[in-house]
Amino acid sequence: MTKTINDVYMELFHRFKEANEPQPSLAARELTAYACKADKNKTGDWGHLYLDDATVDYANLLCDKCLDGEPLAYILGEWDFYGLTFQVDKNVLIPRADTEPLCELVVEQAKKKVSPRILDLCCGSGCIGIAAAHMVKDAHVAAVDNSEGALRVTRENARRLGVQSRFVAVNADVRFRPPGNMGQFDIIVSNPPYVTRSEMHQLDKSVYDYEPHEALYGGVDGLDFYRSICSKWGSLLVTGGIILFECGWQQATDVAAILEKNRFGGIGITEDLAGVPRIVYGYNTEIHDPLE
User: Fold this and answer.
1) What is the mean pLDDT of residues 36-51?
2) What is the DSSP secondary-structure string of 9-61?
3) Beta strands 237-246 and 140-145: pairing type?
4) Percent of the chain with pLDDT over 90
5) How many CA atoms does the CB half-sphere of 93 hold within 13 Å?
6) Residues with Cβ < 8 Å from 274, sequence gap 6 or more?
7) What is the mean pLDDT of the chain?
8) Radius of gyration of the chain from Cα atoms?
C-alpha cells in the first residue's frame, strides 16, 4: 500500500514510543524529514505527499539504527543548539540543551563589552563560541581544540552561520600552555571533558559507543582540564574579565575551589535548565561586577 510522509512519521513515532525514546515525536519528525527529504516545518503537507517503497524502507532502516543506539544527530549530520543548526559528526560531541544556559551567560557578558574577544576552549563543534559570535555582531572568537577533526567541523559551522570573518579555530591542547600569539580575551568559556574514570563505564550506550571519548574523559576525578585551564590559560584573561565553565552535576564545588586556588575572584555557581549546579564562573580580580 502506498504511504504518505505522515504515514511514515506515525509509524516511526510508534516505534520510538514503544522503545521508550524520551522525545518520540521529535525523533520521528526529524528522521522522517531527513529520510523523505521533506520540510520538517511544513508537517501539515505530509498527509498529501506520497512515497515510493524504497524511501519508506530507508526511513525504517534509519529508525533501526537509532533504536540500536546510534545518536539521531549523527545520522542527520546536524543538530540544533541555541536556535541555530550546527553540523556534527563523530569527531565532536552532540550539542546539548544543558549547555544553552552557559551560552546565554557568555552572550550576556559579551553584550556588555565593545568588540569583545571570546576564547572558547575545548570547542568541539564550536557551538558556544559560534552562537556567541552570531548573537553579538562585534564579537571576535578564538576556538581551541586539539582534534583536527573537530576543528574541521568548527570551521564549517562558522562558515555556514556566517561568522567566519570574526572567528578563528586554533589547534592546541589546553593541558599545556597556550601558543604565544593568542593575545588577551574579555571572556574565556569552556565545556571541557569532565567525565570521571568510574563514570565512563556508566555512560549511556549511545554516548559510550559513538561519541568521542577524548571529548568526554576528564581524568580520574574528571577535573584535569579545569586545573590546566585555570593554571595555564587564565593569564589570557584581561583585568575584570570573566571565565565560565560547564561541569558535571557533582563537580561545581570542586571547580569553584580550583578557581579560588588560582586566585580568581567573584566566584559563583549557576544552575542549568534542570536546576542542577552546572555553571561555575570567576573573574581575574577581586573587584568585579556581579554576574547576577
Assistant:
1) 95
2) HHHHHHHHHHTT-SSHHHHHHHHHHHHHT--TT-GGGGGG-EE-HHHHHHHHH
3) unpaired
4) 94
5) 25
6) 98
7) 95
8) 21
